[in-house]
Structure to design on (723 residues):
């Protein structure tokens, strides 16, 4: 790796790590969510530096785009925690830090130990090695299915080996979409307050027979008073 | 790079593919009509057509899509049972939905999607397909569980089911990843296919490599936890009573039968095709879990006052009996499982059909005492309920007896004699709370004058459904030999 790449790498790492630290230290939780987006973008840029363009684009789409918006929505919907004075440090923060460090070490140490000479390869180098290994294992001819490594293989696998799961997942998403619409756009006017199981049980225990309207539905108002 | 498109083999995929397309059709028709009967009829025709596809492809045995799905007679027979159970559930829902003010056309489409996910799960021969089948049926069922939105208990049930189900899905993916990591890549077929796993395990065994490696055992355990959750096997059963109680009654009937059936077939394929070499590792643990499931379900059911909760615990116990057939891991065990599934499907859906006829609008809980004096209000209904309760308890001359007899025989042949003993003892315990229901109906007076005059909604579709269930139970109980021979021949012939 030449010095230009190294410089860019360290700048991007500083951006990512710096934003990461801001995420866990700022007092305003909305600001924390915004810093999180910056972290995601930094990681995407690092992927780009490693020539993993597809991963970078997915990172931006899924994390910087969707996940962070979801986080912001969640903050807005839970009104109690929009306060700006949130204290982020737990009294046992060092336990969390040690755990994180141990997990990171558990991943990075064996990697450097075993792949010491080749762990700084780019994605295209790694793919070439994979294809070469698979060809050797297959007795000199390139096998049909090669372990998925890059965009090209991913595309071929989705349209080849994994065509059926790929198609069925689209039906699964349709079902999920219908379900979401069904739950979200249920006409509010049709919702009537009906007793929960616990309330109904409490009434029955006290020997009160629930009042019904002419359609047979439980009339809740009196019942609530009785509970 | 060279790209080999897969050969599209629609014969193998016929049943699930047709049902998926039919679900879309129902969704489209829903745009133009709000008539529930039209949608239900179209759905029923779709189920019959799908069963017909099974008739056309009968006898074919092959895999397709890089060994991801398999078509065999065993799968087709189970598919027919699932389709029949879905049809019965639609008959239950037809008048229940308008009565409860839950008329939404998406109900039938989601029901068909869930069923197509189950058919796919039954025919899945690959861990990825198992995952997608499980998710397709689960997501549809989460929504259907929460379908009775005006009732808070329904939303509560859907939420509980969704959260715990998402957790189970995590286990499934993690387990699949661990198995994928252990099994060597296969060039000809998908590396996660059950055949590829068994070939790799056999190759490793031949090369003298230990195959009871912690990685693959953990992976297998995680996958079985996730599938055991769907079957509601103890100790992964905690969601069952709450979800069954809160869900609309036809949906409870539907999922208490079909989800268990489909997930158990996936377990059978997983254990006998892929992990047959690890049989000493899983069989004993599974036997203990089956014994726990039968004991826990039947004992806790005694304490239940609510009918839906009682049937939920009884369904946990029945999952334990079906597991006995599954863990025998023999052709006999598989055919015993199929017979038990037929008997259980007819009986359980029938019992829930009786509850459906009694459930008034807005009534969230149906208590045991609500059945008091039902004999006076509706004699035929109470006679049907007695037959269902006898069949659930496994009284001779009912289908339930044949089912229990078959699984006990399979477990005995698999040298799990102590498990048969547990099964017989728990059946005796279960007779207590099943017979208590009949006592309530025939020998007790109604709690109040108002309760004695509550309407019984035994409408035409429900009566048809009840009649099918009763006739099926009696035929299977009195003259079982035809059915037994048919199932034995097909399943034993299909066993590889």
């Amino acid at each position: 790796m030449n010095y230009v790449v190294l410089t860019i790498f360290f700048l991007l790492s500083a951006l990512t790590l710096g934003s990461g630290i801001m995420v866990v230290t700022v007092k305003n939780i909305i600001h924390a969510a915004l810093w999180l987006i910056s972290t995601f973008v930094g990681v995407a840029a690092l992927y780009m530096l490693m020539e993993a363009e597809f991963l970078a684009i997915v990172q931006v789409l899924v994390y910087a785009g969707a996940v962070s918006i979801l986080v912001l929505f969640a903050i807005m919907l839970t009104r109690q925690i929009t306060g700006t004075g949130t204290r982020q440090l737990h009294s046992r923060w060092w336990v969390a830090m040690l755990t994180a460090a141990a997990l990171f070490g558990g991943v990075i140490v064996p990697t450097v130990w075993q792949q010491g000479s080749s762990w700084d390869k780019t994605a295209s180098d790694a793919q070439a090695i994979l294809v070469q290994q698979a060809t050797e294992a297959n007795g000199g001819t390139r096998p049909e299915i090669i372990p998925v490594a890059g965009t090209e293989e991913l595309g071929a696998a989705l349209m080849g080996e994994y065509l059926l799961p790929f198609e069925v997942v689209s039906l699964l998403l349709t079902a999920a979409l219908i379900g979401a619409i069904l739950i979200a756009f249920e006409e509010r006017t049709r919702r009537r307050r009906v007793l929960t199981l616990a309330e109904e049980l409490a009434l029955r225990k006290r020997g009160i027979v629930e009042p019904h309207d002419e359609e047979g539905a439980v009339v809740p108002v009196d019942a609530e008073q009785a509970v | 790079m060279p790209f080999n498109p897969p050969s599209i083999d629609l014969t193998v995929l016929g049943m699930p593919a047709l049902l998926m397309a039919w679900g879309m059709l129902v969704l489209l028709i829903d745009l133009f009509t709000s008539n529930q009967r039209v949608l239900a009829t179209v759905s029923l025709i779709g189920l019959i057509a799908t069963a017909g596809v099974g008739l056309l492809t009968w006898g074919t045995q092959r895999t397709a899509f890089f060994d991801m799905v398999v078509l065999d007679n065993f799968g087709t027979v189970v598919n027919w049972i699932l389709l029949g159970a879905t049809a019965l559930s639609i008959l239950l829902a037809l008048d229940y939905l308008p009565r409860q003010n839950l008329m939404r056309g998406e109900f039938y489409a989601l029901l068909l999607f869930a069923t197509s996910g189950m058919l796919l799960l039954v025919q899945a021969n690959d861990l990825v397909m198992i995952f997608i089948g499980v998710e397709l049926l689960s997501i549809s069922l989460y929504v259907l569980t929460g379908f009775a939105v005006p009732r808070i208990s329904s939303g509560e049930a859907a939420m509980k089911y969704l959260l715990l189900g998402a957790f189970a899905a995590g286990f499934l993916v993690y387990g699949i990843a661990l198995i994928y990591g252990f099994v060597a890549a296969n060039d000809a077929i998908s590396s996660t296919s059950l055949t590829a796993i068994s070939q790799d395990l056999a190759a490793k065994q031949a090369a003298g490599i230990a195959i009871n490696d912690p990685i693959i055992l953990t992976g297998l355990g995680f996958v079985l936890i996730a599938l055991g959750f769907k079957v509601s096997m103890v100790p992964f059963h905690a969601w069952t009573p709450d979800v069954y109680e809160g869900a609309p009654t036809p949906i409870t009937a539907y999922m208490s039968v079909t989800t268990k059936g489909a997930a158990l077939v996936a377990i059978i394929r997983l254990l006998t095709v892929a992990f047959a070499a690890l049989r000493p590792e899983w069989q004993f643990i599974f036997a203990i879990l089956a014994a726990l499931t039968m004991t826990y379900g039947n004992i806790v059911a005694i304490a239940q006052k609510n009918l839906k909760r009682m049937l939920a615990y009884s369904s946990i116990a029945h999952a334990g009996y079906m597991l006995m057939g599954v863990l025998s891991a023999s052709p006999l065990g598989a055919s015993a499982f199929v017979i038990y599934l037929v008997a259980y499907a007819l009986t359980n859906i029938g019992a829930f059909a009786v509850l459906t006829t009694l459930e008034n609008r807005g009534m969230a809980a149906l208590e045991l005492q609500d059945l008091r004096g039902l004999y006076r209000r509706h004699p035929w209904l109470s006679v049907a309920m007695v037959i269902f309760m006898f069949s659930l308890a496994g009284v001779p001359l009912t289908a339930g007896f044949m089912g229990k007899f078959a699984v006990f025989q399979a477990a005995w042949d698999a040298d799990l004699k102590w498990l048969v003993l547990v099964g017989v003892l728990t059946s005796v315990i279960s007779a207590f709370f099943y017979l208590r229901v009949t006592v309530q109906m025939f020998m007790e007076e109604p709690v109040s004058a108002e309760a004695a005059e509550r309407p019984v909604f035994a409408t035409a579709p429900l009566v048809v459904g009840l009649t099918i269930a009763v006739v099926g139970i009696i035929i299977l109980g009195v003259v079982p030999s035809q059915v037994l021979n048919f199932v034995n021949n097909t399943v034993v012939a299909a066993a590889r």
